[in-house]
Amino acid sequence: MKFLACVLLSMISALANAVEPDSAEIPDTLEERAKPCIICHKEADRIDRDAYFPRIAGKPAGYLYNQLRNFRDGRRFYQPMAILLENMSDEYMQEIAQYFASLPYTYPTPVAQALSSDDIQSVETLVNSGDPARDLPACNACHGKALMGVQPYIPGLLGLPHAYVAAQFGGWRNGGIMRGQTPDCMSEIAKKLTQEEVNALAMWLPSQPLSGESAGTDALAPELAQRCRTIVSGKDVMQ
């Protein structure tokens, strides 16, 4: 708790400096104003004691904007983020989202795979075909054939560490401080997966090499756009 309090105080202090810069010393630029975000998100996908700080550089602008708005409006729960964003307008959050989306990101080297051949086959079936019997779409049907995301709202799945992927699945399946109570596509999908499948996906994804770039919106099948229609409207997002 002490760590969380220190982070929160640092963020608030930095935000105050960013919102009202001294024009004689600090340039009034978006880069300067975004520094409160960098306090936690400077090192991509790092884990720091009791909190996860995922990368935000290079992620789709629509996805980042939706997450900012979800934290501000209480659809996702994390006190430092809620306080940081509570008085921020939609327009300003869009600017911040565009700024971080435009930043380059160097993906980490894929980790060695440590799965059995049966586990690999199971994961690849889920990724490429899903499971119609359980109403599970293929992962690449939403996140793009290269699993690098679909602009502007769906993030990529590659280049993330095992611990982060596992934690996100845990949040979708079980709830938690980072997840709101409103059902979304991923919470519904994650709850239909077995724990063994979740474990295998969390191991398989970080081991995959990156190929290609994020896809355009036309890559999302109409039935999936309807299933997660709030993605298309920009009012919510598959998390």
Write a compact overview of the structure shown:
This protein has 239 residues and is mainly alpha-helical.
Explain what you see.
Helix content is 50%, strand content 3%. With 239 residues, it is an all-alpha fold. The protein has a two-stranded antiparallel ribbon with strand order 1-2. Helix 9 packs across helix 10. The longest helix is centred in the N-terminal third of the chain and has 18 residues, at 2-19.
Q: Distance between the terminal alpha carbons, to the nearest Å?
A: 26 Å
For the sheet with most strands, the description reads: 2 strands, antiparallel
The level of helicity is 40-55%
Inertia-based shape: globular
Radius of gyration: 18 Å
Order of helices and strands: HHHEEHHHHHHHHHH
Kindly report the average pLDDT value: 79
Provide the spatial order of strands within the biggest beta sheet. Answer: 1-2
- How many helices? The count is 13
Structural class: mainly alpha
Low-confidence stretches: 16-21, 230-239
Key descriptive features of the protein:
mainly alpha; 239 residues; single chain
List the helices and strands and how they pair.
Elements lengths: L1 H18 L10 H4 L1 H7 L4 E3 L2 E3 L7 H13 L5 H7 L4 H12 L15 H12 L10 H5 L18 H13 L10 H8 L2 H10 L17 H6 L1 H5 L6
Antiparallel strand pairs: 1-2
